[in-house]
TrEMBL record:
InterPro entries: NAD(P)-bd_dom_sf, SDR_fam. The keyword Transferase does not apply. This is Carbonyl reductase. One of its GO terms (molecular function) is oxidoreductase activity. Belongs to the short-chain dehydrogenases/reductases (SDR) family. PANTHER family: CARBONYL REDUCTASE 1-RELATED (PTHR43963), CHAIN DEHYDROGENASE FAMILY PROTEIN, PUTATIVE (AFU_ORTHOLOGUE AFUA_3G15350)-RELATED (PTHR43963:SF6). SUPFAM superfamilies: NAD(P)-binding Rossmann-fold domains. It comes from the Bacteria.
């Protein structure tokens, strides 16, 4: 496929890594749609990028609101007819630093609504559009925080991190990645499904400022999106059911 026939949807594309991914892929010639739960924020992001000479689109998309997801899929079907790449980037953490013995059901469910159920709802509702492209890919922005191997490794950068709701939701999204990838292969569909660990990145994730995140060792956004951009611009589209970061495979 040529880059200019690629149509990419980035959820949570109005800021942070999602915005940087959208900008980078639009710069490479892809048609990029920013999904934003607050449409005004999505439109403001698009307006700024358009003023820099890029041409992106924005769509209202709250991944936790099934009506919003259905409407977005409908609009994209009417406007574009197909989707080549779905980047499930929208994510949130609600329980950072909380002890597993104390964490409330309410916060656990919030973590799962965005990072697991929302991701699956978007994926299922965009599937008819992905099936219409000659080849397609789904990239799930996961986290090393979802790796049980890393959580048990004292040398790991995530060894001391505790957010059991967020971590479990990302681990669950990793299993969804594997099972969906296997389903696509079983049915000989040209759709790949992979998970990405961006590393610790200086965004507003978790309520910190990018400066605070940098002081804690977070990497620049340009580094955090590198692996995603490599996958999103790989037209061989051979990688399937992988969990990787810029250093290679990440333990599940
Ligand atoms: N930053 C890190 O260190 C790090 C490390 C590992 C993995 N990640 C993952 O990377 C992804 C991007 O994170 P980031 O660092 O760029 O965070 P961020 O700057 O906080 O951006 C998060 C994005 O997700 C959107 N979002 C949250 N809930 C949503 C919902 N219900 N529906 C639609 N969009 C929603 C936000 O929209 P609003 O503007 O409306 O809030 C925002 O656009 C997330 O999946 C995160 O788990 C981040």
């Amino acid at each position: 496929m040529k880059n200019d026939s690629v149509i990419t949807l980035v959820t949570g594309g109005n800021r942070g890594m999602g915005l940087a991914i959208a900008k980078s892929l639009a710069t490479s010639g892809q048609k990029v749609i920013i999904g934003s739960r607050n449409l005004d924020n999505g439109l403001a992001a698009v307006e700024k990028l358009n003023s820099e000479g890029l041409k992106l689109d924005a769509i209202q998309l709250d991944v936790t609101d099934s009506t919003s997801v259905t409407a977005a899929a409908h609009t994209l079907a009417k406007k574009y007819g197909y989707l080549t790449t779905l980047i499930n980037n929208a994510g949130s953490v609600f329980d950072f630093g909380m002890e597993p013995s104390q964490i409330s059901q309410e916060l656990l469910r919030k973590d799962f609504e965005v990072n697991y159920f929302g991701l699956i709802d978007v994926t299922q509702k965009m599937m008819p559009l992905l099936k219409k492209a000659p080849q397609a890919k789904i990239i799930n922005i996961s986290s090393m925080m979802g790796s049980k191997t890393e959580a048990l490794n004292p040398q790991s950068e995530v060894y001391r991190a505790v957010a059991v709701g967020y971590q479990s939701a990302k681990a669950a999204a990793n299993m969804f990645t594997v099972q969906l990838a296997k389903e696509m292969s079983r049915n000989n569909l040209p759709i790949t499904v992979n998970a990405i660990d961006p590393g610790m990145v200086a965004t507003e994730f978790g309520g910190a400022t990018p400066e605070q995140a940098r002081e804690m060792g977070a990497k620049p956004i340009t580094v955090g999106i590198k692996r995603t951009i490599a996958l999103a611009t790989d037209f061989e589209n051979k990688d399937n059911a992988t969990f990787t970061n810029i250093n290679g495979p990440v333990a599940w």
